[in-house]
């Protein structure tokens, strides 16, 4: 009860916003301290021998594995502040855990003595599980704000660690937090994060799918939006690899990924390839110029308001089927989408996909992927 009153007092006094600002100030102070150390080492290097300079440079690169002198852990104050926000998110009125009975029993009965013990244990077990359940979404919102506003990768890393631990502490926590669209928002901002943070965000999403058994449509739509943006080939490869994992994990994701627009994105990318440029491109069906699934999702009331504008064909900086880092993953993803998926194959044929991929047979790089795709279409054609 005391914790609930404290949470109410913090809320009424706008304490959550203060905690966010305090976290950002502490983060900035820690970063300034790191910069001071860097300047001192740089000054020492200037007056030292080349050998000693090399030692300092190597140490700087090895520190934290991130090419700077950032400490591998947060300051105790920042770490404790994150713990406070996590605790506040789990503070709230407990759910009723009454255990029904079939009428009064004699108090001195041995049967009652034996049966009351399991009932008490069940109540305690329910209370213990309930203690880790998210009850205050505003505290989660504050963690989200800290992550997005912080200019400190160590702080961002710790926020993700806390959130993953929070999601794993109770089976319902991820679905409860979906109301805030936290993970979709993180995904849409992934381009500005280091690779290890991008991988951790995808790891959280993978946990939601494989352990919590959640079908995260908004998160997948965000990934599909991101796949069309001018992002690095490494990030596109990570997204494609994640889609392939989903398709191998559960067959239902063949339908889900088609509905969020993955198949259209891949077809649009093929259509914009240099093999199909020029006069050949003018003969393509007009219905391939846009992604209908994206339009449907974007116009729905559940659309992510903060998502970037869906870009048209030709906007990507790194083409899936032109960059060597993504070609193999793109073909693997397309084949996985079509294999044993009649609806996806029908959509692919209606989009003239089989004709589109034929010119790629002339390329040594693409031939294997095209042959696997055509083999899939031929062997699984139910109209033969």
UniProtKB/TrEMBL annotation:
Keywords, in A-Z order: WD repeat
Listed InterPro entries: BEACH_domain_protein
Span list, region Disordered: 48-73, 92-128
Compositionally biased tracts (Polar residues): 109-118
Bias-annotated ranges (Basic and acidic residues): 119-128
Name of the protein in question: Mon2/Sec7/BIG1-like HUS domain-containing protein
């Amino acid at each position: 009860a005391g914790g609930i009153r404290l949470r109410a007092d913090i809320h009424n006094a706008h304490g959550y916003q203060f905690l966010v600002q305090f976290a950002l100030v502490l983060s900035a102070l820690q970063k300034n301290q790191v910069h001071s150390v860097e300047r001192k080492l740089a000054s020492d290097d200037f007056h030292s021998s080349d050998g000693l300079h090399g030692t300092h440079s190597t140490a700087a690169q090895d520190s934290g594995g991130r090419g700077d002198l950032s400490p591998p852990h947060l300051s105790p104050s920042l770490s404790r502040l994150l713990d406070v926000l996590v605790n506040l998110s789990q503070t709230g009125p407990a759910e009723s855990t009454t255990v029904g009975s079939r009428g009064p029993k004699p108090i001195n009965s041995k049967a009652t003595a034996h049966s009351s013990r399991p009932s008490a244990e069940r109540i305690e077990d329910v209370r213990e599980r309930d203690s880790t359940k998210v009850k205050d979404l505003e505290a989660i919102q504050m963690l989200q704000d800290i992550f997005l506003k912080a200019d400190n990768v160590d702080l961002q890393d710790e926020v993700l660690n806390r959130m993953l631990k929070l999601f794993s502490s109770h089976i319902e926590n991820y679905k409860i937090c979906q109301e805030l669209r936290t993970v979709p928002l993180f995904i849409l901002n992934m381009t500005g994060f280091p690779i290890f943070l991008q991988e951790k965000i995808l790891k959280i999403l993978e946990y939601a799918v494989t352990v919590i058994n959640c079908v995260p449509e908004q998160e997948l739509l965000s990934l599909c939006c991101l796949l069309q943006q001018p992002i690095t080939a490494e990030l596109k490869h990570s997204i494609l690899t994640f889609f392939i994992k989903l398709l191998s994990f559960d067959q239902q994701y063949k339908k889900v990924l088609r509905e969020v627009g993955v198949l259209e994105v891949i077809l649009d990318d093929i259509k914009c390839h240099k093999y199909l440029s020029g006069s050949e491109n003018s003969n393509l069906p007009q219905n391939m110029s846009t992604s209908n699934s994206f339009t449907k999702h974007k116009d729905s009331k559940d659309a992510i308001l903060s998502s970037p504008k869906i870009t048209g064909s030709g906007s990507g900086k790194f083409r899936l089927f032109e960059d060597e880092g993504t070609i193999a993953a793109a073909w693997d993803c397309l084949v996985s989408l079509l294999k044993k998926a009649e609806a996806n194959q029908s959509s692919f044929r209606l989009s003239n996909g089989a004709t589109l991929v034929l010119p790629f047979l002339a390329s040594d790089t693409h031939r294997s992927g095209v042959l696997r795709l055509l083999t899939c279409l031929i062997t699984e054609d139910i109209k033969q």
